[in-house]
């Protein structure tokens, strides 16, 4: 299936819109990216609930298993040993962990948390944004991609976001510049999709969105980026330039802001 994707990054305030969103990842519920992304999505007017793994589950693809009580602390000591299989932050019950895989966490968010907070299914499922890009063969083992794929199987439009820069960072740390940039970009894509109106995506379709490296000298602001509908696999050796965006000149050769389309069967 082929669809067109037009995304505008203006740097202006997000348009007034709202959607009920389940947010997950594979880096864990206490990683800083998902917490800042939650804040920006919420500030844009959306109703969001986090349902993410208790620990870093990167590279677990579409693995799925019943959640079990914690035999060790959650990542960054965000919950103690002996905590229940599913739990939430005492100060914000919309921050939920599941002691299992990203797929299991996303499904718990859709089937259990969404009826509780939204009165039914979410309107949109978002995974990420991931620490590290998810392109090429990496998509086959990505827990971020696995979570978005499972949401699409559940009948919920889904987006997987990933950023090239960064490392595993606790939610209590100072917010890195790339985290803010990628959060703004991810929210912009999400809002663009919402403002286009329902159905947000065709049935069984999810988007895979990747951001290039962001540093103090390159791709420092959301204004520096533009989006292209990209190939999933890398350009062949010696391939000619085919797009110029944020310091890169090829559709997925390890760099650009790429938006790919996935379909589940």
In brief:
About 20% of the residues lie in helices and about 20% in strands. The chain is built from 4 helices and 9 strands, in the order βαβββαβαβαβββ.
List the helices and strands and how they pair.
Elements: E1 20-24, H1 32-43, E2 47-53, E3 86-89, E4 92-98, H2 102-118, E5 124-131, H3 143-153, E6 158-163, H4 177-195, E7 205-211, E8 228-229, E9 258-263
Parallel strand pairs: 1-2, 1-5, 2-4, 5-6, 6-7, 8-9
Antiparallel strand pairs: 3-4, 7-9
Helix pairs in contact: 1-4, 2-3
Structural class: alpha/beta
Q: Enumerate the spans where pLDDT stays under 50 for 5 or more consecutive residues.
A: 1-13, 253-258
- Indicate the mean pLDDT: 87
The topology string of helices and strands comes to EHEEEHEHEHEEE
Shape call: globular
Name the helicity range: 10-25%
* Rg, Cα atoms, Å: 17 Å
Number of helices: 4
Terminal CA distance reads 12 Å
Largest beta-sheet details: 9 strands, mixed
How is the largest sheet built, in terms of strand order? 3-4-2-1-5-6-7-9-8
Q: Could you give the count of β-strands?
A: 9
Q: Please report which band the strand proportion falls in: under 5%, 5-15%, 15-25%, 25-35%, 35-45% or over 45%.
A: 15-25%
Summarize the structure in words.
It contains four helices and nine strands. It has a nine-stranded mixed β-sheet, sandwiched between helices. Mean pLDDT is 87; it is low at 1-13 and 253-258. With 265 residues, it is α/β, with parallel strands linked by helices. Helix content is 22%, strand content 20%. 50% of the residues are buried. Strand 6, helix 4 (177-195) and strand 7 form a beta-alpha-beta unit.
């Amino acid at each position: 299936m082929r669809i067109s994707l037009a995304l505008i990054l203006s740097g202006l305030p997000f348009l007034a819109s709202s959607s009920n969103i389940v947010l997950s990842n594979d880096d864990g519920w206490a990683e800083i990216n998902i917490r800042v992304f939650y804040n920006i999505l919420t500030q844009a007017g959306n109703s969001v609930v986090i349902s993410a793994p208790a620990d870093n589950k990167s590279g677990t693809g579409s693995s799925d298993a019943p959640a079990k009580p914690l035999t060790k602390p959650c990542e960054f000591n965000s919950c103690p040993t002996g905590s229940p299989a599913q739990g939430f932050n005492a100060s914000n019950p919309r921050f939920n962990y599941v002691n299992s895989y990203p797929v299991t966490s996303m499904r718990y968010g859709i089937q259990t948390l969404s009826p509780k907070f939204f009165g039914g299914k979410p309107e949109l499922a978002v995974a990420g944004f991931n620490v590290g890009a998810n392109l090429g063969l990496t998509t086959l083992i990505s827990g971020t991609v696995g979570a978005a794929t499972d949401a699409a199987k559940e009948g919920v439009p889904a987006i997987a976001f990933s950023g090239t820069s960064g490392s595993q960072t606790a939610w209590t740390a100072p917010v890195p510049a790339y985290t803010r940039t990628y959060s703004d970009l991810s929210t912009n894509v999400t809002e663009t999709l919402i403002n286009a109106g329902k159905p947000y995506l065709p049935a069984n379709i999810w988007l895979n969105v990747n951001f290039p490296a962001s540093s103090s000298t390159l791709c420092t602001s959301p204004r520096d980026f533009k989006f292209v509908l990209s190939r999933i696999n890398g350009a062949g050796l010696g391939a000619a330039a085919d797009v110029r965006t944020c310091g890169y000149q090829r559709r997925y050769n390890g760099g650009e802001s790429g938006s790919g389309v996935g379909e589940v069967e």
